[in-house]
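Posting this for the archive.
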Amino acid sequence: MRLICCFFKAIFFIIFLAVIFNQDSYGQSYGMGFHSHEVVQDKRTSLDLSPEKTLCFNNNFEISFDLSFYLNRAVYFGYIIRIIEDDHRNIDLVYNAEALKNHFNLIIGDKLTKTAFDIDPNSLFNRWNKLSIKFDYDNDRIIFRSGDRTFIEKNMHLKRSACYKILFGVNNYKQFKTTDIPPMKLRDIKIISNGSLTYNWPLNEELGQTAHEIYSQSDGAVINPLWITALHHDWQPAQGLKINGVASVAFDPKKEIVYVIGSDSIYSYQADSSHWSSTAYSSGKLILNQGNQSVFNPYDKNLYNFYLFVNKKFIAKYNTTTHAWDKKFEAGDVSDFWHLNKSISISDSSLYLFGGYGHLVYKNTVQQYHFNTHTWENIVPNRDFFMPRYLAALGATEKGDTVYILGGYGNSSGQQILNPNNMYDMMRFTVKDKTFKKMFTLKEGDNDFAMANSLIIDSHSNSYYGLIFPQHKYNSTLQLIYGSLLKPSYTFVGNSIPYNFHDTHSFADLYYCKTSKKFIAVTLLRSETNQTKVNIYTLLSPPFGSGSTVSLAKRSYYLYYIACFLLIAAATAFIYLKRRKTNSPILISSPVINDAEASEIPNKIKAYSSGTLCKNSIFLFGDLQVFDAEGADITKHFTPLIKELFLVILLYSIKHGRGLSSEKLNEILWFDKDAKSARNNRSVNIAKLKSLLDRLDHCSLSKDTGYWKIDIDFDHVHVDYGDYLSIVRDKALLDIERIKFLSAITQRGNFLLNNEYEWLDSFKSEISNDVIDTYLHYAHSLDPTHDAELLIEISAYIFHFDPVNEEATILKCKALSSLGKHSLAKHTFENFIKEYKVIYGEDFKMDFHDILEKKTSQK
């Protein structure tokens, strides 16, 4: 086991280096993007590998390239590659999203070939996928490869010494002109002739109209390119606005919309389409006092605008349906809390406001607004002193339970006349106990800086992004930094953004789009005539510094290869030792259990282990997998939208028994469309989903009750989520077989591991809690002396869901001690307290002897 631990440490270290060198798990840091149907024909992208000539080959040759698609585009149709043979015959790879299956098709001349396939949407949209086309003169055939799939087209009448035009995207070549193109990205185009690399276009440029070929200096020509490397380094300006009023800005992270609140209208910027729209207020003109701010509440999905005086606090809610504010403000003095920071907490449904500046005083006030009761409360924080400040940056964890505040400008007294200065401390505020803790202080550089209003927090990597700027000059610039939440280190990434800073006339903020994988920077500048100039800039994630991004990307590949090798070795060793110890294989789920079937559980587990229950099966733990009545894996046929439609109806059907209404489906999936458009989209995709479910026996989509529901006969269709519910819902029936069965289900991986939807969060959270509670409930029925080995195994199951679970740690330590393995028990506890401190930033309050004597709570 010590050897395995060393393996995993090596893996984590190498992956850490890979992340440092290239913070992009899919390596999408270079390549060329193609403008597609979102722009007019003249602005779409073309790549000609051999302008002014053709490429000729005497021997077999193969062209390969990496392909990926952009998410959230309206149209997915067109030519990926067109190969023209001797100006006579075209060989095309075309993508058609409207096809029921096999969206990729190889076309020769004007005929479809048998080469038709799909790429899993998760891979197509999030990873690079290698495709290749080989011209095999020796056997007069074309061989097409996609991943591990191979297609052969015979009797092609290929001619040696034929010459080819190789075109990607749109083209204007003779009679082979095309204007249809899917929203795609390409990189690493290579041609191998007679077994040797002949041409290589990596597409790693940052600008220009040339695709440099690095082997034979045969450069390609590009029209309207989107160089991906540049999009990770250079902020791209969007169309700006000038609007009436002392405007403020807010962000909806789910819909990826930036809202700008003006005095007579609200303006919306859609991140994935770079499109502006505006809506006039039905409630009339809104008085926006100086210093107002806005915030989007992701939990009730409403916009709020507020401004504060010392003795008065005003807040209004905007109804996105009626386009009206629920109250009108009175014209008042300027705010006492300019450039304050804000955060929303889901645990107590509250808005928290920190610091600010007004009337020559810097504030360290913490104010809480309760959305449910519409009341305000001043908080008196505990522990470390929060120095009065403004121009700080705030970021919060996903649920808003932990807040980080970095930097700012102010002083300990709060009085502006008493030598204010820039500050660089990182403060952590915990909502549960209302305490501040100083984490560290950044090292001061040669130039002072303040912060834009928000930090982007990544809790998984304990890191943050923020925008800094020198506040002592008007013609300033914003610079993105990437830093650690655990230590005072940061680095500059991306280029700078122009920012006119005029203190209370200016405002800057930073947002992150998780789906589109891009940062958004917003700057506001108010004129003396109460007009606000709005500028928006975007940057692809991960952002790069000023060095060579391409070399960093390629360097990380080797690290990933080494990590994968070590991971396979470690996993093999772990499984081998685990099976030697327990003599039981890793199992997958079985059908729903009732009392009469309980005795059949071991047989069902064996059946799943042998793979005989893959027919008519739906697996939701780990990666989604759907097997039809013949045992074929049809998961790849679920497009991203149909997959989400399938999952939301399935889960509501199984858990609640009735499914969802059409209105609820529209709210979840087509919230951005009017009623007619949403109805049309729903009808089309429901039909596609029905067609897929028809491939399973005893599983169908219905609306007999007025709700969309997936009807399943669990005697014939195996759904691991149903098995899970049957175990956790009746803890009185728990026994060793059911515990092993629950472990078999969850060992496939976390629930819908690679799927992130807002509506799914509650399911995932509930499953984690219920699984842990079920294990603990059964563990408390065991005797620590006689069932020590089993308790250790159950603790391992719990750690899979909660690595720092206090109850599981106590159970494991007690069990190890009862077996006489005192050093292992002590080692387990020491690892726990180290992880506890990393996660919570404080020491665990009991020592080893305390936990051995502690009685665990009954579940």
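The chain is about 25% helix and 35% strand. The two ends are 32 Å apart (CA to CA).
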